[in-house]
Amino acid sequence: TAFLLGADKTSYPLLCPIIAGVLHYLFLTVFAWM
Fold first, then answer.
1. pTM of the model as a whole
2. CB atoms within 10 A of CB 22
3. Which pLDDT value is given to residue 9?
4. How many domains would you assign to the chain?
5. Contacts of 6 (CB under 8 A, 6+ apart)
6. Residue 9 in contact with residue 15, Cβ under 8 Å?
7. What residue intervals traverse the membrane (predicted)?
8. Distance (Å, rounded) from C-alpha 25 to C-alpha 32?
9. What is the tens place of the pLDDT at every residue in 2-19?
10. SS3 string of the chain?
11. Backbone φ, ψ for residue 23 (5° rounding)
């Protein structure tokens, strides 16, 4: 659902890389804790 909400906001070009970076960082931290 978060991906659909992010993909729907095409009028914000700077929001996509920010969300992608945050998600990438969260995945790295989750795998690091595991």
1. 0.49
2. 10
3. 57
4. 1
5. 15, 16, 19
6. yes
7. 12-33
8. 10
9. 555 555 555 666 777 888
10. CHHHHHHHCCCCCCHHHHHHHHHHHHHHHHHHHC
11. -65, -40
